[in-house]
Amino acid sequence: MPRPLWNGSLSFGLVNVPVQLTSGTRDLDLHFRQLHKKDGAPIEQRRYCSQDEVEVDWEEIGRGFELDDGKQVVLTDEELASVQPEKTRTIDVQAFVDLEDVDPIYFDNTWFLVPAGDSQGTRRAYRLLVEVMESTQRAALGRFVMRTKEYLVLVRPRDGLLSLTTMRFHDEVRPTDGIAPGGRKPAKDKIEQAVAVIESLGTDWDPERYTDCYRERLKRVVEEKKKGKKIKAPTEPKEPKPAPDLMEALQATLERMGSGKGGGNGKGKAKGGRRQKAGAKS
Amino acid sequence: MPKSIWNGTISFGLAHVPIKLYSATESKTVSFREVHLSDGAPIEHRRLCSEEGKEVPYKEVVKGYEVSEGEYVVLEKDEVKAAAGARGKVIEIEDFVPGDDIDPIFVEKTYYVGCRDDGDAYKVFQAALEETGRVGIGRFTFHDREYLAAVRPLDGVLALHTLRFHDEIVDAGDLEVTIPRKGPSKQEAKMAEQLVDSLHEDFDPTDYEDTYREAVLDLIDRKAKGKKIERPEFEEREETDDLAAALKASLKGRKS
Prior knowledge:
The structure holds two protein chains of two kinds.
Chain A: E1 6-12, E2 15-23, E3 33-36, E4 43-49, E5 61-66, E6 72-75, H1 77-80, E7 90-97, E8 107-115, H2 120-136, E9 139-146, E10 149-158, E11 161-167, H3 188-200, H4 213-226, H5 246-258
Parallel strand pairs in A: 1-7
Antiparallel strand pairs in A: 1-2, 2-8, 5-6, 7-9, 8-11, 9-10, 10-11
Helix pairs in contact in A: 3-5
Chain B: E1 6-12, E2 15-23, E3 33-36, E4 43-49, E5 61-68, E6 71-75, H1 77-84, E7 90-98, E8 107-115, H2 121-132, E9 134-142, E10 145-154, E11 157-163, H3 186-198, H4 211-224, H5 243-255
Parallel strand pairs in B: 1-7
Antiparallel strand pairs in B: 1-2, 2-8, 5-6, 7-9, 8-11, 9-10, 10-11
Helix pairs in contact in B: 3-5
């Protein structure tokens, strides 16, 4: 199992379960290193004091905060750790909510919460939490502090374990004020036509249908470059202009779908198929 | 007026919707800068060549991918662009899937999508998505990399979530965790359900403030006034050994 990123306990009423956090997602991006163009040697990042021109070790670095009057307050890591230390050790469950009430806009990162204690009591308590959230279909809302940031978190069962998702606080989600919503409500027939197009392109959500083409292409570019080939950037295609007549464009799309050229699943002609689950394309 | 970060077009079928993207979230974490403890001077990050030990100006830095230990393939900016693909400024919707079926674990970042012209395509698209309960899945290129994205109606406008790919999600089976085979007793399960019910609430994000943020600002204030900063003592909570007793006591605490 990977190294835990956080150790502590999950508290629910007076039940305390020792837990560890491990990643629920993995970074599969290709990572590059900075190199010196002249000799190809890797670049190292070093920290220097802007005043003394000396290299500074990590232990000699503090956290500076500028006050409104321009003065600076410097805190050490120990001083910062004095803020609500109990929150850095415990995820306190404050409420249980329905997952569908939580908009994904609040979601940040997902982790697994795995049991850490050895006692049978805590392992059973962990399993109980998984089961009770499965049977009630509810997720636990709690909060804790990790790396000097407080998170609102949602804990819920996932394949027999507990997952933890860090969330944004309400004031970290911007209001939609000022986002142009388009003109007035369009004519009904236009919406109906668009609904028909959407349904004709409708399918089940199957995440495995989508692979990271960027990652694959980048690997290929690296391979080709290694072989000494020259790689050119593609020319950007022109941005399409909106059709002067939206109705016509929607109609033409439906016709294309209906004749099977558009890669749709042929449901284009079946009007009124709203909310039905289209069969998965394969 | 929020500032847009990207201009482009959402295409579904032969219909094109000119749009602008805006950040939907912002971090409010108290941020610090690195300073030298001895004199309070800001810390600078300098790039040094590991061979020469000398500082390297940014224009002499290239990107390298390590193909085997110590062996790098250098990629120019244009070559990275080649991998980004030829989508240009188009978010082409490939599929429409039921919005409720996408587990939020896939969601990475969220942007708001605003209308860019006075045509009615935006509104038609937004209203039609709302009516079907579906979200559009497509790909788009942003800052020289391609993302998978979901476009959905939100609060009268459209929102775009960048999505993780399926192989970026860790399965529970990838972890070796032993969960006791013996499940909780009926009594324990019943008490736990009662406790969950008693703590059930409708989710209202404004019920939860980041009190830690305030506490950090308060700490800064105390330090500025020259007060001594001490770490408060607190008792670590003991792990639960007697599950039934802990549940019983919790329920009693809720009722009184």
